[in-house]
Amino acid sequence: MDARKEGEPTPMKNRTTVDRTSDREIVVTRTIDGPARIVWEAFTKPELFKRWWVPKSFGMSLLTCELDVRAGGSYRLVFRHADAGTMAFFGRYLEVTPHSRIVWTNDEGEGEGSVTTATFEEKGGATRLVLHDLYPSKEALDAGIGATEGMPETMDQLNELVVSLRTKQ
Amino acid sequence: MPAAVRVYILNYMVQYIGPRLDASFAALSDPTRRGVLEQLGRSDASITDLAQKFHMTLTGMKKHVGILEEAGLVTTEKIGRVRTCRLGTRRLEDEMAWLERYRQLWEARFDELDTVVQELKKKERIDGRAKRR
Q1: Phi-psi region of B55 (alpha: psi -120 to 50; beta: other; left: phi over 0)
Q2: I need a surface site. Which of A138, B23, B40, B132 has the fewest CB within 10 A?
Q3: Quick one: A112 and A46 in the same domain?
């Protein structure tokens, strides 16, 4: 039974889906209740972008947020994390079509990074967002997914810690 | 930004699922056992094959495989007189858990994006009214 009273506004909660669509691809989708031009603004204006890209629950803050949103332009994000110190994420915009499509590279890792394509489809005043991540190889995507392989150093440290705790017991 | 996601997931693992991973980490703390996993990643192998490859006694290898099996990293199956080892299903479970964390990360982001978009919509309406006046 629906506990909500009639006449009360239905809370709009759109579902986020994540699918591994192939060995090298991950696709994230979500519908945002607003026209594409506004969602676009939130993606491309640093002062707006920094408000949602790093939700409060992450325990991180964004120190630097430079977005030069045009084909060939670059972006740079610097996060501060309580445990991990600062981390920089950067890359280039490969394709920018206002209100409809942005393609950027993720260059912070070792070797070739993934390429993200964000598309904005407006329908009835709402925007369906599709974020498509294409990795250079299956191995690169697996490395991101496999916690132990993706974070060798951190995992080694965690491992050492766990082992030392166990030997103390 | 995959690397940011990784840090976020690490946080989660340490806080919530870390204790459950003890067995896995203990199993992975030994270089021979890591070598065995690497080997099984390439192809299934019998305990005898593995013992030979790692210059060990059969008993020694059985012990290592037992620890990996307990941690869910390896499964074994005895066919006739040969016990064949292969990578366990843990990898798949890890991947599913990762995808779910990834989804939650994006959900948190999109929820905040919703707030920003609602604010901009409201502002547009107010600005629109002001212009019409």
Answers
A1: left
A2: B132
A3: yes
Which residue of B11, B34, B110, B123 to mutate against A (max A Cβ within 10 Å)?
Answer: B110
For residue range A100-144, what is the model confidence (pLDDT) as tens digits? Answer: 999 999 988 777 889 999 999 999 989 999 999 999 988 788 776
A48–B120 CB contact, under 8 Å: yes
Predicted-assembly ipTM surpassing the 0.95 threshold: no
A93 with A159, same domain?
no
Residues A79, A156, single domain; the answer is: no
pLDDT > 50? residue A166: no
Burial-class residue B90 by CB neighbours within 10 Å (0-12, 13-18, 19+).
middle
pLDDT digits (tens, 9 = 90+) for A75-88: 999 988 766 678 78
Residues of B in contact with A79 (CB under 8 A): 4
Q: Cα A93 vs. chain centroid, distance in angstroms?
A: 15
Place of tokens 């996601």: B5
The count of domains in chain A is 2
CATH of the domain at A75: 3.30.530.20
Position A95 confidence tier, pLDDT thresholds 50, 70, 90? very high
**pTM of structure:** 0.61
Q: Evaluate if residue A159 carries a pLDDT over 60.
A: no
- Asked if residue A8 belongs to a domain, the reply is no
Q: Using a CB–CB cutoff of 8 Å, tell me whether A163 touches chain B.
A: yes
Which of A14, A17, A18, A122 should one mutate to test binding to chain B, selecting the residue with the greatest count of B CBs within 10 A? A18
Under CATH, which number does the domain B1-88 receive?
1.10.10.10
Is there a contact between A42 and B120 if contact means CB atoms under 8 Å apart?
A: yes
CB contacts under 8 A, B 12-71 vs A, are: 13-14, 18, 21-22, 24-26, 28-29
Nearest alpha carbon to residue A18 among B13, B113, B110, B116: B110
State which residues form the domain around A159.
139-169
Instruction: Return the pLDDT at B54.
Output: 95
